[in-house]
Amino acid sequence: MSRLGKPLLELRRVSRHFKNGDTIIKAMDSIDLTIRHGEFVSIMGQSGSGKSTLMNIIGCLDRATSGEYYIDGILVNDLKPNKLARLRRDTFGFVFQRYNLLSGETASENVQVPAMYAGLSKAERRTRAEELLTRLGMGDRLEHYPSQLSGGQQQRVAIARALVNHPFVILADEPTGALDSKSGDEVLALLKKLHREEGATIVMITHEEHIANQAERIVRIHDGKIVEDRSAKPVLADGREHVRISKKEPSTSVMLGNAVHTALRSLKANLFRTALTLLGIVIGVASVVTMLAIGTGSKQDVIDQIQKMGTNLTMVFSGAPGVRGSGSTLSIDDVNVLKTVDDIVYVVPERSGSTTVRYGNIDYRTSLQGVGYQYAQPRDWELDSGTFFTQEDERSYAPVVVLGKSVRDYLFSDTANPVGQYIQVGSIPMQVIGVMQEKGAAMFGRDQDDMVLTPYTTAMMRVLGGTYLSMITVKNVENTDIDTLQENMKQALMVTHKTEDFRIRSSTSLISMVSDTQNTLTILLGAVAAISLFVGGIGVMNIMLVSVTERTREIGVRMATGARMRDILIQFNTEAAVVCAIGGVLGLGLGFLTGWIISLFEVSIVFTLMPSVLAFGCAFITGILFGYLPARKAAKLDPVVALATE
């Protein structure tokens, strides 16, 4: 008989009591037990005797109510959860009665779980797992899932998992309890071989006499007390030095990579539930992207329309600030006053109204714009055909008109040339001398091409009546300070008006005002869309809570094999983040597709990078925030309670 090693596990007057209402149940009562390196010990007792509680205490899955427990001379009673996790990882390999294999992992991947928490690289884990499974006769079952294996094969995988980190102690809880006699004998032979050839310390829990007799030492427990401790046969361990592997804390990147892998497996295993979970996130992200694209497009559309009026323009409107209606406070004298202001290139008088125009038997209601002869220059508006009226036409009240594209298309066929033709404006016949190029989109609901241009003098004297102007348009020199220009214009007009019965607006301030309004609407649209993203986040939290409940036993297995609270927290939080990231990507795709479809109905859609980044970022952060509570719940589970969950 070879010598035994020093004490490895030592329990001194250890008790474990449970409260059931007002009743105290003594599952273990003042137990003293020492297990040395290299022993093969069976702990035997009937159901309810306390043997499983003793195993949970020995394996650091549960804590003693009183007494002292030492592992290799280290007192473990008051160790924090993370230190207990390291101790389980470095000291114990668990073989469970019900195997406790992860259903979504292959045989090889199940064996690799403890090695991952020991900080081994992916290649090292796989090599070690393949070597062990091959030694145990499972070399042709590496990529099989637990459901594809027999009970004996699953237990072999569980034994390989227990051995992968070269533990000091193998804890086998009823290792043959769920097997037929042949498979049970194979597992016992395997345990004895590990003990004999590798000097493994084995603690086996059983309630069967013939199973217990396979060990070198039998500890019999009854009603929470050890009633017998005897050697059944000579000790076969040769006391060889325990094989160690280099263990370290797994890096965050390794844990994240594994968590992503596990998350994708979990999503694939529950496709319908995953689809429902993703739906809220997808709709939320798509809504944010689409709504902001509509808002941005609308804003850009209005800005483009303002810019089509011309750049560096300042408009003086008739009527006092804050007073509804156009008023009649501007005159041609104000045009002459504004021409004296510095940095002004063009000053164009305008008188607007509406009238009916007729060509042949076609009548059309349109806008009549009486303007100065320089009207087209500040607006960068070119002629499509013909000419524009001259200063002489303006002075002589000439009955001439220039048509906008919309009026031209309505009154004349596509092939007819309107230049030289006469149309009736109101009751006055006027000659068409030109057609303007198409200006484009409507401005504030008014089609800029739906107008007839005539000298302002002609409009006032022949059609609209009166001698006042509706507005005056000013084009300033490039890079002029607009605020200073507007103040100078105001002071010049105040000399003759004496009171501020006019309004001055620049295209720049108009763009700013419209932008502010559109930004507010865009924020409102985004906020409404964000609500659906929030609702989607609640759905993620709910489904993750369900996942934690469903996978409680898996969590217990991971904790038993060395997972720290941090590792469990990372795993489940990452799973939630992966769900939301996938939902975010799908949501972006749906948002772009929806926006494209909407644009087919002539709605302005502008996609920009920032809303897409924000929408995806919010979805990802939603996963982290709403996944934290379920992940925290998982991380705080008691290993022994988790393993006992059905």
Q: How would you describe this structure to a colleague?
A:
The chain has 19 helices and 22 strands. With 646 residues, the chain is of the alpha+beta class. Strands 6-7-8-3-9-10 form a six-stranded mixed sheet, with helices on both faces. Helix 3 runs parallel beside helix 5 (151-163) and helix 9 (271-308) packs antiparallel against helix 18 (609-635). It is rod-shaped and about 130 Å long. The model is unreliable at 235-243 (pLDDT under 50).
Unreliable stretches covering 5 or more consecutive residues? 235-243
Radius of gyration: 43 Å
Adjacency order of strands in the biggest sheet: 6-7-8-3-9-10
Oligomeric state, counting identical vs distinct chains = single chain
Total beta-strand segments: 22
Tell me the structural class: alpha+beta
Mean pLDDT over all positions: 84
Helix content: 40-55%
Number of helices: 19
Beta content comes to 15-25%
- Principal-axis shape: rod-shaped
Largest sheet: 6 strands, mixed
Our measurement of the CA-to-CA distance between the termini, rounded to an integer number of angstroms, reads: 44 Å
